[in-house]
Amino acid sequence: MKRVLTTALSLMLISAPTAFAQEQTTLSANGERESVAGVVPDNFTGTVTVTPLFAASDLSNAGGGLVEFAPGARTVWHIHPAGQTLIITSGLGWVQEEGGERIHVKAGDVVQFPPNVRHWHGASATNSMAHIAITPTAGGTNVEWLEPVTDADYLN
Ligand code: MN
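^ thats the input. predicted complex w/ manganese (II) ion below
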């Protein structure tokens, strides 16, 4: 780990941008950020665990989080004013934008939603899924939660 940090610091020094308020390499260790249950029913349906990874800051206007969905669990319909990138880290999941086909995703897949495209994401009906969500902020927010995804829509 020390070697990794040293290398990262060296890269920073070589290419040091001057606009960053954050001037030191930081480590946010696993265990310093508590996992919490996803908020049901406002944000999610089913059993979801959210572990924050990093908050929006001077370094990046995007925050990141690990979201773990039990089989059948999913977000409610929602939009992101500045879009969102999902990196699937395990399991099998489904994502869908309104009016589009339901897309099957697995570990290593990367999904990008444009700004203000109504969509949902979650596990498949039979398997869990986890993704890292990277979500930029616009106008002081990064998400607008809407109504739940009905079973009929989820299984469609
Ligand atoms: Mn989303």
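The chain has a mean pLDDT of 90.
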